[in-house]
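REQUEST ID: PR-0412
SUBMITTED BY: lab tech R.K.
PRIORITY: routine
TASK: structure prediction, single protein chain
INPUT:
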Amino acid sequence: MKTCLLHARTFARLRPRLKGLSAAVRIVTIDDAGKAHDAETSTQLAELPPIDVAFGNADGFYSPAVREFMTAILKSPDLDWFQSAAAGIENPALVMIGKKAKRYTTNHTQAEAMAEWALWQALDFVREGPAHRAQQAEGTWKRVGAREIRGSRWLVVGYGSIGQAVGRRVSALGGEVTGLRRSPGPAEGAARIVAPDALMAELPRADIVLLCPPHTPETEGMGNAAFFAAMAPHALFLNLGRGALVDEAALMAALDAGRPAFAALDVTRTEPLPADNPLWRHPRIVITPHDSADTPGTIAGADDTFLANLERYLKGEPLKHLVDASAFAGG
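STATUS: complete
OUTPUT:
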């Protein structure tokens, strides 16, 4: 029998869907107080048994007992499979787990919520949200000319699951999407796919530029002075990838110079962003605290991914979203 570690809140949510698996898997939990229990009997455990399977999600990693949760995973002598609720793998804690686990799988359902963040920011920008809010604050009744998503040209850098989720929505509203990625060929939601070496040529023609590639040595600081200088003066810059993709000083200087027109960031180089950081107060920047994926739908999607993979795992079938062990070798 396999032993699976869940946060107690995750188990409470999934309990009805885990019925019938008790013969194949023993579930143990850790709660916010750091107490371990046998999920089937609710018996408190003096110590956790060795863990074969673990599901790492916001319940566990944002818990007051995150240390106990991580320790249980990393001290297990034979961690066979770890399911992450995240798509990325560069977080240092996840790298440690990736080196430990024989199999490591990711989740990409948060792309839907993140795509809505991009659409929200784009709609607010093209429909002149800041100008309308300023007029409302002043009690001024004056028509404001605006643009539409329809006919807008998007450049999505890193056309993976997030990019495709954005592309589907933008295309449905009449926008034109160009996706930039290494692998050629058509992709859902994109009118065109171009190679990374086309980046600088594509930037001037885009009305909205979205960054959502992974953070790698190649993408580190790609949003630099030359990048922003190549953008159109009327364009919007969005970052849903990682803060390290952007030279933030260069971004602020570019906005001050009028190219691009505006920026919205869900990620920053330092998180949490210190209260005295000038990004907070720049008049042409919107900051959200890396919460674009924090929705009930994202939680449900991660749960679905885990349960579907758990069924495959217990049947000895290949797991979906499996990460090659070599991805953790340099971490």
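NOTES: The first helix runs from residue 8 to 18.
REVIEWED BY: pending
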